[in-house]
Automatic annotation (TrEMBL):
Domain of life: Bacteria
Family statement: Belongs to the DSD1 family.
CDD domains: PLPDE_III_DSD_D-TA_like_1 (cd06812)
InterPro entries named in the record: Ala_racemase_N (IPR001608), D-amino_acid_metab_enzyme (IPR051466), D-ser_dehydrat-like_dom (IPR026956), D-ser_dehydrat-like_sf (IPR042208), PLP-binding_barrel (IPR029066)
Record-annotated D-serine dehydratase-like domain positions: 266-371
GO molecular function list: D-serine ammonia-lyase activity
Protein known as: Alanine racemase
Gene Ontology biological process terms from the UniProt entry: D-serine catabolic process
Claim: Lyase is one of the keywords in the record: yes
Sorted UniProt keywords: Lyase
SMART domains: D-ser_dehydrat
Length: 392
């Protein structure tokens, strides 16, 4: 379930100049600021915040969400649910459609006293969940996924099967509520577009809930959220909880649509220069797509950031330098518009800011933690190493 911890310990690796590259770095100062920003917004909107831990997949990161006290969380894998349950989290939503083979693990967590909500969007799923609940003598809390923008799964709020699914779940004591995710908000390029996406997300979820209630079915939970809409929502009347995950780290995709600034990005990957191809205008590093992922989410934005922007070891952007290509273990850095390459000798350490924090973090066993407010005359000091939960 958990991958092995990194070989380097904080005592052996004192600064970012010490561990073998590539490795992931989290700036705890920036991360705390990102966490506080959304928590304050949720408070203003008077809605519960249920962070999605799929981005960091780390109990250490989650401990900062509510000052060390376990809070309601959303997960994307049962491995996360199990690890967080082991860490004292008892209110968990598994926000990926359920299949029958996973129900024994779900029931095992429920028997431990964990409230684990599952997600579904079909009569077939509702039937096998209801049957499993009856056989186990234990209701499995289930939410009906609602499609608010055609991004992925879910039912439209006026779908003929919505009431049928709700009744099937209710009769087995399983109906918890509805959940939607505005995935297309990642392509909302202006603040107004993001506000409209947030309004649509809310209205769609509330409409589905009201339709179920009109049919005499109780709906306790109305859950909405994505990182763009969570930061754009102005009125969440009728919603009981707000979900978001990427916001703890942020990334270049979020910066590209204006949800955050580049200087808010808390995750980076340290790489080392291993070669030069001046005839091509290339600097070669030891950080390829195995370190950064293949995600090219900024390619559709006004400013394509390649595989990531480049900073020095202190986190200062190197103007016009971009990671424009990647093979498995090699990254290629070039300048925009053929500008002069900076002088970066073999052995120089750099940091790459990711396109998609979730995908880049998934390439690593854990995070080397720094605090950018603590300045020294050497490379940034490593405060700790935090492990991740990997696998499914």
């Amino acid at each position: 379930m958990n991958n092995p911890a990194p070989a380097t310990s904080p005592s052996a690796a004192r600064t970012l100049a010490d561990p073998d590259t590539p490795f992931a770095v989290v700036d705890v100062h920036k991360m705390r600021r990102n966490i506080e920003r959304l928590a304050a917004r949720a408070d203003r909107l008077e809605v519960a915040l249920r962070p999605h831990v799929k981005t960091a997949k780390s109990l250490d990161v989650a401990a900062l969400l509510r000052h060390g006290t376990p809070c309601p969380v959303t997960v994307s894998t049962l491995a996360e649910a199990e690890a967080f349950a082991d860490g004292g989290y008892t209110d968990i939503t598994y926000a990926v459609g359920i299949d029958p083979h996973k129900l024994p693990r779900v029931l095992k967590l429920l028997r431990r006293g964990v409230t684990l909500r599952i997600l579904l969007d079909s009569t077939e799923q509702a039937e096998f969940v209801a049957q499993a609940s009856r056989q186990a003598g234990l209701p499995i809390p289930a939410q009906i996924e609602i499609d608010c923008d055609g991004h992925r799964g879910g039912l439209k709020p006026d779908a003929p099967t919505l009431i049928e699914i709700g009744r099937s779940l209710h009769d087995a004591g399983c109906l918890d509520g509805v959940l939607t995710h505005a995935g297309e908000s990642y392509f909302a390029y202006t603040g107004e577009e993001q506000r409209l996406a947030a309004t649509n997300e809310r209205d769609t979820a509330v409409a589905a809930a009201e339709r179920l209630r009109a049919a005499g079915l109780p709906v306790a939970t109305v859950s909405v959220g994505s990182t763009p809409t969570a930061h754009a929502a102005e009125d969440l009347t009728g919603v009981t909880e707000l979900r978001a995950g990427n916001y703890v780290f942020f990334d270049l995709v979020m910066a590209g649509i204006g949800v955050c600034r580049i200087e808010d990005i808390a995750l980076s990957v340290v790489v080392t220069v291993i070669g030069h191809r001046p005839e091509h205008g290339w600097i070669i590093t030891d950080g390829g797509w195995m370190a950064m992922s293949r995600d090219r989410g900024t390619a559709v934005q006004a400013q394509d950031q390649g595989y990531g922007l480049v900073t020095d070891l202190d986190g200062t952007l190197i103007p016009d330098l971009v990671m424009t290509a990647a093979s498995q273990e090699h990254g290629t850095l070039t300048t925009r518009d053929g500008a002069h390459l900076p002088d970066l000798p073999v052995g120089t350490r750099l940091r790459i800011l990711p396109n998609h924090a979730c995908a880049t973090a998934a390439q690593h066993h854990g995070y080397h933690v720094i605090d950018s407010t603590r300045t020294t005359n050497t490379a940034p000091a490593i405060q700790d190493i935090w492990q991740r939960v990997n696998g499914w």
